[in-house]
Write a structure and sequence with these properties.
The chain has 171 residues and is mainly beta. The chain contains 3 helices and 12 strands. The protein has a single domain, classed as Pnp Oxidase, Chain A (Roll). Strands 3-2-6-9-10-5-4 form a 7-stranded antiparallel sheet. It has a 3-stranded antiparallel sheet with strand order 1-11-12, with no helix packed on it. The longest helix has 9 residues. The chain is globular, with a radius of gyration of 15 Å.
Length: 171
């Protein structure tokens, strides 16, 4: 077994790149918070991916947080390359102008984090993009308090997913 799979399940996100006129969306599990102050996140993207080319070129990306009801589009976004297919036509997402970056956000997602690339680190077959969060938007019902309410996608392996929708136990 690939030892990286031992870390799963991982939360699934969407990485938006490109422009409002020509958006690209990639499914990603390898997303990590890095700093509260300033707010920064990291995302690992393979150099083989079209998204890598767009993030490298524009130095911006948006992390969109999908809920379980978007699973079909999340799967399509991760299995079809935007280099060959216009994902704006393929996916049922509504793209809208972000506040501080040229990359669009996704209306149907419960949150969007607008990021400007501040560092790129080549790590094996991926590049770790460090993004400073310059703006965000979120669904106030989902993120009403410290414990988000909603059904988030957890990627198990290959085409298998589960959700966080279980009883919450506090210690």
């Amino acid at each position: 077994m690939d030892p990286i799979r031992l870390l799963y399940p991982l939360r699934t996100y969407l990485i938006v790149s490109g422009t409002l006129e020509n958006p690209n969306v990639m499914t990603a599990d390898w997303v990590c918070p890095l700093s509260f102050n300033p707010p920064m996140v990291g995302v690992a993207i393979s150099k083989k991916r079209y998204t890598y080319n767009l993030v490298s070129k524009f130095k911006e990306f948006v992390i969109s947080v999908p809920s379980m009801d978007l699973l079909d589009d999340v799967w399509k976004a991760g299995t079809v390359s935007g280099k060959n297919v216009d994902k704006k036509k393929l996916l049922s997402f509504t793209f809208f102008k972000s506040k501080r970056v040229s990359v669009p956000s996704i209306k149907e997602c419960v949150a969007n984090l607008e990021c400007k690339v501040v560092n790129e680190i080549e790590i094996g077959d991926h590049v770790w993009f460090v993004g400073k969060i310059v703006a965000s938007n979120f669904d106030k019902k989902t993120f009403k308090n410290a414990i988000p309410k909603g059904e988030f996608i957890l990627h198990l392996a290959f085409n298998n997913f589960t959700t966080n929708k279980k009883e919450i136990k506090s210690l």
